Amino acid sequence: MRKSLCARTFIQLAAVAVFLAAAGGCETLPAPSINLLSTQQEVQLGRELAEEIEQKEAIHEDEQLQAYVRDIGRDLARVAPRRDVDYQFTVIDEPDTVNAFALPGGHMYLYTGLMKLMENEAELAGVMAHEIGHVAARHHGERLTRMYGYNLLVSVLLGDEPGAAANIASHLVEMNFSRENEREADAIAVELLWRAGYDPGAMLTFMEKMQEEEQRRGTGPTLPFLSSHPPTQERIALIRQHLARYPAEERAERTPDADEYREQVLNRLP
Ligand SMILES: [Zn+2]
Question: How far away, in angstroms, is 133 Cα from ligand 1 center?
Answer without folding.
Answer: 8
